[in-house]
Amino acid sequence: MKPSPFEISCPGSLDAAHKALHENPRGTRIISGGQSLGPMLNLRLARPSRLVDVTGLSGLAEIRQTDSHVEIGAAVTHARIEDGEVPDPIPGMLRHVAAGIAYRAVRNRGTIGGSLCHADPAADWVTAMTALGATLLVRDGSGGAREIPMSGFMLGAYRTSMAEDEILTTVRVPRHSDRARWGYYKICRKVGEFADAIAGFVADPESRVCRVVFGSTGGAPLVSTELAQQIATTGAVPPLDTVKTVLRDSGLTLSDVKIHQLAIAHSRAVTEALSDA
Ligand SMILES: Cc1cc2nc3c(=O)[nH]c(=O)nc-3n(C[C@H](O)[C@H](O)[C@H](O)COP(=O)(O)OP(=O)(O)OC[C@H]3O[C@@H](n4cnc5c(N)ncnc54)[C@H](O)[C@@H]3O)c2cc1C
Asked: Do 214 and 180 form a contact (C-beta atoms < 8 A)?
């Protein structure tokens, strides 16, 4: 199938991109790497009359660091992160997550911002950035800026708290201390596929952060404060049955197979993090 006809523009500034979107938010879509939107256009699941390409906007391709944060432009590709261009807010985690996304051709074009905005429940960055406590910086409909914590960003499968005339500009990730530990485990049938189950774990004794996040649950990532508290208190990997009970009691509709996969992913992620301590 071929896409419906559309115009494409490559604005020279964020203001111009915002203006183009604001003129006709319903009929316009931002395009970044096109790795998710491209197939949707070809299948006519999306039929915008205009695409606004943000990959050439200098602000969106930038990477900055401050004493407290690493800021990744929304149009930074998975490949740049995999290649270590982004200073790690916690040693090794971003490169590990990026390298596990699809295969290199997809990573060369796909962007962190596109992945977050697409909000596929099985995608990697939505889970990893929730575990890292990231905040998203957005150019809002009136041309101002607003911040959305990752914990409130994804509302469900392919749904976010961004309005249709907003543009994600930056992913701001807090820097963790040298004592921080992380684990990230993704179960998928074949290399290069989306995950059947993901578990992310980040703990930093200095900032008293301990987060357990499950991904590929069919909706937004599931954050378990109960498991995080248990790990912080005992310093041990919770038994599989405990994790399964937490997942069963989460209120999500999860099959027994999914619960088993998520529990295994969690066990491997936390083991990886704690064995490194
Ligand atoms: C074969 C294949 C395998 C894949 N496997 C994985 C995997 O294992 N794990 C994984 O996480 N992902 C996977 N992906 C998805 C890939 O990571 C995509 O790069 C990503 O989902 C979308 O990023 P993109 O830059 O291509 O966004 P696009 O396709 O350009 O856009 C996606 C959506 O985000 C919106 N958007 C993009 N940028 C912005 C912005 N700055 N502000 C507002 N809205 C914006 C677009 O309007 C569109 O709705 C796979 C893709 C393919 C094709």
From this structure: no
